[in-house]
Amino acid sequence: MTTTNKHILDVFDPQTFLQEYWQKAPCVIKQFIPDFTDPIDEHDLAGLAQEEEVDSRIVSFNEGEWQATQGPFDDFEKVCAGKWTILVQGVDRYINEVSELAEQVKFIPNWRFDDVMVSYSVTGAGVGAHTDEYDVFIVQGKGSRRWQVGLPKDNYKHISPHPLLKLIDGFESIIDYELQTGDAIYIPPKHPHKGQTLSDCLNYSIGFRAPTNLELLQGVFDYGETLSEAQTRYSDPNLLELRGQVNALKVSGAEVSNQELTQLKNSMLALLESAQAQQAILSFLSRQALPDSKLEYVLTCNEVSDLLVAGKPIYKAPGVKPIYASTCKNDTLHAQNAKCEANASGIFQFFIDGEVFEIDASLAETVKDIIAQDAILTCPNNLTPIQQTQFFSLVTELVNAGYWYVEE
């Protein structure tokens, strides 16, 4: 084993982790979740892999050849040959207990969270040495797995033994460690890594996304209807100045002047700096690809209020991670910034899976409390009658959208 002590954390401290490891260096976290018990088993995982809307695949190494098959699956015997692994994306969106694993890393912002992928692999299996563009915490469930992690390099030889597999041809390890149940390993982007199963095991990969600026730009313009209110049309009444005053009439009609390019870019920047663009950015960042759970029978505000008054909890659906923006320039003291998220119109906005929800700014703190909790247990008793009506209306909207639910 080549792992040095600096790469092994016996005690996990979020602040130290963020300062020394996050996006900087990989590390092993011993007993990240003490007394960990798997929230699902391989049979549950196989059941999800049979569903059309679930992203799943099986990777195998059999008789010297790699194979990878995209789900859904109706016959596992054909693809589970040799040393095989089944991987299912977004399991947190379907199973509450898996969704709760993300609470272990709640010090990372919601908008950076992607999903929890769960894999089951037989002894000797793995998916090969590779790199990823995202951060990941991999929690070891039952069984054990050996992990090797190296340092980023530009000259790794990339190989593709199968159209669905992008591997690299070896790397030098700085971590070589056997994870046991409850242990975890953190791997930053671009760090080569390889896992090999030592005994049949389950792994839970808590992944984080980081959009490129181009992806972000494309995502923003997906919300063109929102942006349309802030768009302006190009105009150039100052054409002489833009084309160079004295020589303006001599400039080729095919030439675009630097001044014209600057004016065009400034116009785009003005659009991106608008309040409408901020809403589009937040809508994009809140996307989670959650399953459609809208109610067929729409509840009324009175029905929702009756449920809460009767002590019937309303639960947050698996995988739901709301986000909202802070517009404060200095938010070092949260207590001084309680109202800074409300925009100029006195409305507090938050976002779930691309949708925006609004409520009067006076209820901002109440709403932030409920979206941070697993369940709404009651209506806060410090609300005015008007605020109570607004509160119940919002909760009803969330329930009917499928983001919160009432247990039958």
Provide tags for this entry:
3 domains; 408 residues; Jelly Rolls; alpha+beta; 3-stranded antiparallel sheet; single chain; 9-stranded mixed sheet; 24% helix; 19 strands; globular
Task: Report on this structure.
The protein is an alpha+beta fold and 408 residues long. The chain has 3 domains: 5-208, Cupin (Jelly Rolls, Sandwich); 213-285, no CATH class; 301-405, no CATH class. 24% of the residues lie in helices and 24% in strands. It contains 11 helices and 19 strands. The protein has a 9-stranded mixed β-sheet with strand order 1-2-12-7-14-6-5-3-4, with helices on one face. Strands 11-8-13 form a 3-stranded antiparallel β-sheet, with no helix packed on it. Strands 18-15-19 form a 3-stranded antiparallel β-sheet. Strand 16 (347-352) and strand 17 form a beta hairpin. The longest helix is centred in the last third of the chain and has 17 residues, at 385-401. The protein is globular, with a radius of gyration of 26 Å.
Question: Outline of this structure?
Answer:
With 408 residues, this protein is α+β, with helices and mostly antiparallel strands.
CATH fold-level assignment of the largest domain? Jelly Rolls
What is the general shape?
globular
Q: Could you name the CATH class of the largest domain?
A: Mainly Beta
Mean pLDDT: 90
The whole-angstrom Rg is 26 Å
The parts where pLDDT drops under 50 for at least 5 residues are: 329-343
Order of helices and strands: EHEHEEEHEEEEEEEEEHHHHHHEEEHEHE
CATH architecture of the largest domain: Sandwich
Give the total of beta strands.
19
